[in-house]
Design goal:
With 303 residues, this protein is mainly α. The chain has one domain. It is 78% helix and 0% strand. Helix 1 packs across helix 11, helix 4 packs antiparallel against helix 9 and helix 11 crosses helix 13. The protein is globular, with a radius of gyration of 19 Å. The relative contact order is 0.24.
Amino acid sequence: MWFICALLTTLIWGLAELFYKKSAVENEKYSHLKTCICVGVVMGIHAIYVLLTSDIQYDFKNIIMYLPVSFCYIFSMALSFFGMKYIEESISDPIENTSGAITSILCFVILGQAIGKLSILGIILIVIGILMIGFLEMRSDNERQKRLGKKMAIIAFTMPFLYAIFDALGSFLDAYFLELETSPLLMVTEDTIELVANTSYELTFAISAIILALYIILKKEKIDIINQKDKMLAAICETIGQFTYVYAMSGNAIIAAPMISSVCVVSVILSRIFLKEKLTRKQYLAITSVIIGILVLAVAEVI
């Protein structure tokens, strides 16, 4: 069962990235905020379902307690949605998935945790790939720079990097919040702490969606969530993937983690097939280095 869940998580999250990219309208000013609203709506519905059907004795103060982690995750996703309007998914997704490497570095620098040789190899491959991508991006007189202007092209290109940093910070903080002995979360047990944390995150996303909706309405823009098919499909895939992820990791984390880390491979393949994204050989070489580094790091973390 865990193997099926791990496989489903990888494919579903890969599909989510595809729908996110399809829904990212470059000339629509608030497209990224509307995507956040759709994700918040779906996650809010799921959180309410969990509260009504499970006996976790949820304390709503946990929304505040878990806010530092929720902010990092939500803000990183908003940055990602903004960048998707301008950057090819084949480039942005592998960069965003380097958050695991950044988390390892944070644990090494701040917590003094040891890093194995295999992890160091993975990080080196990721750094080499990212440096290559950045070098090729800055050297090329590509269509994006012509369309957006050099300044905006650079801003857009920084979005996946900022996503990786904030997502890594969220993962780093999760190590503290999900440890029962140190967690500030209220009324949690070893069996419920992850569900409480995830519910707090989803409720915070739902509240953020309401705030963003009010902001867009004040700007006299239409939201029309019902007709945002790709955005809603992405949000549904995101939430379903989170659900199967929990069962995959609880069943056999040692094998499931590297499998799920390959979601960026699925994303690149789907983008090439359905979005017809075309990159140079050097760009694909750089992306391959990043992906291999991510997989090496994932394997190293569970050995």
